[in-house]
Amino acid sequence: xxxxxxxxxxxxxxxxxxxxxxxxxAGPVVAAAVILDRTNVPEGMTxxxxxxxxxxxxxxxxxxxxxxxxxxxxxxxxxxxxxxxKATFLAMKRAVEALPQKPxxxxxxxxRDPKIHPSTQLIVKGDNKSLSISAASIVAKVTRDRKMKAxxxxxxxxxxxxxxxxxTAEHRxxxxxxxxxxxxxxxxxxxxxxxxxxxx
Length: 200
Description:
The chain is built from seven helices and five strands; from the N terminus they run ββαβααββαααα. It is globular, with a radius of gyration of 17 Å. By secondary structure, the protein is α/β, with parallel strands linked by helices. The chain has helices at about 55-65, 75-80, 85-95, 130-155, 160-165, 170-180, 190-200, and strands at about 15-20, 30-35, 70-75, 105-110, 120-125. It has a single domain (about 5-155), classed as 2-Layer Sandwich (Nucleotidyltransferase, domain 5). The model has no long low-confidence stretch (mean pLDDT about 95).
């Protein structure tokens, strides 16, 4: 389970940073930055993908009410313009900038430095190791899942309320039947190939 071992090596305000949505065919990429209150830490936090929907939603509410939280996203046009990695870093930058206080250090999930803060520590599988990153992963995932559920009401043929825009069989079937929407990432190979096949 994640703990404060990484945080304990640093002084000052420490923000955990994580993103959700690098792999889907559709929708924005969403990042969160969280500075936990060490006297009021929600119990049961871990990698958001390991938690049930009910647990994630409950922890999201507890994190929002007890911690300093910043949320940022990069849109589908930005993903297509800059590429998914640069768009992810942009979402992270926006999440950190949205924090009510500027952090002294960042703990970032993964092995690529977004270069948005002079004191940044990268932690591979950080959402399993650092409570701050775990909190960020939960906030980012719940936020993005809710966005995709809302978008599914406008574009009901792709199952986004269930697959969050990932390339499931249901999503692919919807693409073949109903085509590409403005929320699809045209720079992603499956979408690009589908567009090319319909144009030829």
